[in-house]
UniProtKB/TrEMBL annotation, chains A, B:
Chief subcellular location: cytoplasm
Listed InterPro entries: Ald_DH/histidinol_DH (IPR016161), Ald_DH_C (IPR016163), Ald_DH_N (IPR016162), Aldehyde_DH_dom (IPR015590), G-glutamylP_reductase_CS (IPR020593), Glu-5-SA_DH (IPR012134), GPR_dom (IPR000965)
PANTHER family according to UniProt: DELTA-1-PYRROLINE-5-CARBOXYLATE SYNTHASE, GLUTAMATE SEMIALDEHYDE DEHYDROGENASE
Domain of life, per lineage: Bacteria
GO MF terms held by the record: glutamate-5-semialdehyde dehydrogenase activity; NADP binding
GO cellular component terms, A-Z: cytoplasm
Reaction equations catalysed: L-glutamate 5-semialdehyde + phosphate + NADP(+) = L-glutamyl 5-phosphate + NADPH + H(+)
One of the GO BP terms on file: L-proline biosynthetic process
Pathway as given in its UniProt record: Amino-acid biosynthesis; L-proline biosynthesis; L-glutamate 5-semialdehyde from L-glutamate: step 2/2
Protein name: Gamma-glutamyl phosphate reductase
Organism: Mycetocola manganoxydans
Localization: Cytoplasm
Length: 432, 432
């Protein structure tokens, strides 16, 4: 024993002396009250201040981002991850413009969803209110920090962010910019909190903070999402992977089939709404496949196909059982001949992750059955699966795409960050 | 070793040879497809068959219920629990009439909640769809079996029920009646499953059945709900306890304050929407308390009060810190003098369980602040808290009263047992 031993243990990952995750979440909870009752004008002024502020802070943001990128390269991060981590002037301008799009949306708070007057004269109204404190756990994409903070602010929520170690320097600067924007319009900076400096323990505490955090949104890899779903005691909205299907029905137009499949696969293969499997009606396979597949091949797509496809279009690799369940996120596609709509529905029920499926058809009965019977967040007829996107749906940006059925399903915008409450107005009524 | 030993272990609680919880949930999942696409007429015919069937089966139901009551008495069940377990002809008629009320509701399935046409001509619509398979874990109340099955059927869901050992005989007969009603109109009996015969293991498997069960609703004691929230991997909608407050503001009318508090406490003290704490503005305490408290005392209510109250109305017991956090569910009430609205809001923030709070006031500014700032599922002005109820709100019956913010908040009817999906209709559009 030496006289210099500290008498109190200080956790090594508690970077802010005397602070704790719980203390920050409690400050977020207090700040959430000011956000919940803030007028739309004030929230929009904060968003405009953020759009201006993030561009004004470009130099600081990019310096921090360079540090993160250097650390990432040293740590051997894959090129794709480094690309998602990287900011530049144009991407920063993109962040500002996303924030302005969110500001331009209708304020969801205070909207009346249902209302009625009971026989005894009591008036009941269900109105939109913020959740309170929204938690987000995501991987090294600095744009998610700005998107989620802006969506939370627009919907009157405080937010607690855990953004991934690889982006920690960039996120630290971005969060300071967001907090300054809040302060500049008289809203509490504490409405935006990070737990990044607590490392993995910060994420764990966030997941255990039932009562302090109202909802937690994990956004990132399947393994991240699974870990949060399994560990969290806070209610979770699951955003998920997409094994996305397009079914080419007997009556599908060749040109639509060709362009929709090509767009859905090639326009951006690394995202969750890209198509992974094409099913084609046996009676139309000979007509459709040469056009559909040669268009894909010309863009460098590898075709994983069953024997029936290979008989009609030989330049393929043989598909295995694994192919039907794979989210490639690359220029690969699985193609299978089916006996018709029922067979296609069976295949989709078995392999779909419930994200997006599309049918190409001229037959209204087939299209209506497909729309009714496919149990996915988004079901389409004669359109590219790439349209499953908050921006495309007019939401400004998205918190993520929910593949679960509770609370939110499909692209999540500001409305999906709200709860409701019932307002009951009486004149002395009691229950008989 | 003897030659008569069984060669295969059969779990003692697996009453159906070769069956399993998973097998039943998979059959429910298959059956859910027929429910999801069933027309409203067919679902209503099944509900009418159930209403007729439960009355026709009275003799069988009451015989089974007698067995449960005898077992309950032997096991030393409290009188209150025995009362909730007991059925008689009049209660069976009540079950039938609740089922008919549910049949009379508008079918929520297929309703369009939002829709728009994108600039490129793609049409998007958000429509209500069933969850698929709804799980419920509840305690020994046979009426919940009928209520939840009927609400699930109306909303196009299959259901998996775990109803508490004390009611197992009654529930077995009721579930047979429900399954017969489905079959009688051509719907699959497998849409209603019980896991009661698997005992506690059945509940555990239900909570682990992520992917087979879409949402789980626990209904019962605080400890049951906490256990489900903690253990379940299936998304849970928490129904909760009510530490319910009424705040009597400076301008509260004496007659309204007196009758609202009395009704909220005395009409049915054992339920979650009964008031537990009354807060009274200091400037109105002398005017209001004698009337409010003597009316309560005349109905046998014990008043747990702070010193300021005791100074004005001496016939009280001294309140302790515990009283402010207690859901009495009995003829007890806690009463406190506060300095005004801010003080009342602070108290409510600290002790409320977020169920229902009501203000009695003539002051519109105070009422609007209370409605805006109290963060509870239901917030009222000048009305009894006993109105927080699915039946009172016009929902026919209720699955429970949600005190969480995700998906459903307040009384849960058929709409709260639905999810949504996006229907996208194009004419060959691809993303640019």
């Amino acid at each position: 024993m030496t006289t210099t031993s500290p008498t109190v243990d200080v956790p090594a990952n508690d970077a802010v002396s005397g602070d704790s995750v719980t203390a920050r979440l409690e400050r977020a909870r207090v700040a959430s009250r000011a956000l919940a009752t803030a007028n739309g004008d004030v929230k929009n002024a904060a968003l405009e201040a953020l759009a201006v502020g993030v561009v004004a802070a470009s130099e600081r943001v990019l310096a921090a981002n360079t540090t993160d990128l250097e650390n990432g390269r040293t740590a051997g991060l894959a090129d794709g991850l480094l690309d998602r981590l990287r900011l530049d002037d144009s991407r920063i301008a993109g962040l500002a413009s996303a924030v302005r799009e969110i500001a331009a949306l209708t304020d969801p708070i205070g909207q009346t969803l249902r209302g009625s007057k009971l026989p005894n004269g009591v008036k009941i109204d269900q109105v939109r209110v913020p959740f309170g404190v929204v938690g987000a756990i995501y991987e090294a994409r600095p744009n998610v920090t700005i998107d989620i903070a802006a969506l939370a602010l627009k919907s009157g929520n405080a937010v607690a962010l855990r953004g991934g170690t690889a982006a920690e320097n960039t996120n630290r600067v971005l969060i300071a910019v967001i907090r300054d924007a809040l302060t500049s319009v008289g809203l509490p900076a504490d409405a935006v909190q990070t737990v990044d400096d607590f490392g993995r323990a910060g994420a764990t505490e966030l997941m255990q903070a039932r009562g302090l955090v109202d909802v937690l949104v994990p956004r990132g890899s399947a393994s991240l999402i699974q870990a949060v779903v399994t560990e969290s005691r806070v209610p979770v909205i699951e955003t998920g992977a997409g094994v996305v299907h397009i079914y080419l029905d007997e009556t599908a137009r060749t040109d639509w089939a060709t362009e929709i499949v090509h767009n859905a696969k090639v326009q951006r293969p690394s995202v969750c709404n890209a198509v992974e499997t094409v099913l084609v009606h046996r009676a139309a396979a000979e007509r459709l496949l040469p056009s559909v597949l040669s268009r894909l091949a010309a863009s460098g797509v590898t075709i994983h196909a069953d024997e029936a496809v290979a008989g009609l279009y030989p330049d393929v690799v043989a598909a295995t059982e694994d192919d039907w369940a794979t989210e490639y996120m690359s220029l690969d596609i699985a193609v299978r001949v089916v006996d018709g709509l029922d067979d296609a529905l069976d295949h989709i029920r078995r392999y779909s992750t419930g994200h997006t499926e599309s049918i190409v058809t001229e037959d209204v009965a087939a299209s209506e059955r497909f729309l009714a019977e496919v149990d996915s967040a988004v079901v389409m007829v004669n359109a590219s699966t790439r349209f499953t996107d908050g921006g495309e749906f007019g939401f400004g940006a998205e918190v993520g795409i929910s593949t679960q059925k509770l609370h939110a399903r499909g692209p999540m915008g500001v409305s999906e960050l709200t709860s409701t409450k019932w307002i009951v107005r009486g004149t002395g009524q009691v229950r008989g």
